[in-house]
Design a protein that fits this description.
Layout lengths: L1 E6 L11 H8 L4 E6 L12 E2 L9 E2 L1 H19 L6 E11 L2 H8 L3 E5 L5 E2 L2 H8 L3 E6 L9 H12 L32 E3 L5 E3 L9 H19 L1 H4 L1
Parallel strand pairs: 1-2, 1-6, 4-7, 5-6, 5-8
Antiparallel strand pairs: 3-4, 9-10
The chain binds adenine.
The site of adenine has 11 residues, from strand 5.
Amino acid sequence: MRIDVVTLFGEYLAPLELSLIGKARRDGLLGLHVHDLRDFAHDRHRTVDDTPVGGGAGMVMKPGPWAEALDAVVAAGRAELGEGAEPLIVFPNPAGTPFAQATAHAWSERPWIVFACGRYEGIDERVYEHLADAGREVALASLGDYVLNGGEVAVLAMTEAIVRLVPGVVGNAASLVEESHSDGLLEYPLYTKPASWTAPDGTVRDVPEVLLSGNHERIAAWRAEQSLARTRERRPDLLA
Ligand code: ADE
């Protein structure tokens, strides 16, 4: 899978060198390319923003650098993947469609995603028109109902959620099957050894008896019940 990120703050993406995602890159399962939007601003100050036409607070990102950057990234990706390759261009945006586990699954099957990180109040609307006219596939994705300073943190979260679902990235694929949201419910409680643990305050805390029974059917039934109870308590919206 190829992922391109266009941003003003490439340093924000440094954590993608670490852990599972870093290993996926070293193993050749993920090609990650970070591009500086300022490389596509050509005035002396490499300006990427300006005041909003019509008035209002804050700054708006200029259309020129974005159009040029995204066109260049598409051309570079096609040089690697083939002239017919078509990326999904994702703008992280609090006004976008909620990004969920189902989104991560769908996007993990894409060969190529381009993330475009906006900052300030937003990007000039004509960038989206330019992309639509060029036949590009575009999505606006929100991490949640709160406002971040820019798209970079959202890209970190989305990239991790997507790339861990790419076959071969997570060593034990079975661990992806029973985690929270994999079946629309929250995950059941987990325990490890010792079966009887004495907490620092002296209280003895035992693992639920059913988990020691060796009866796989009873264990599965208990876990399903716990998942449902947890979901009902913490996320009733998921049951609706
Ligand atoms: N950019 C700013 N806030 C965001 C959010 N909640 N989700 C995605 N991108 C954002």
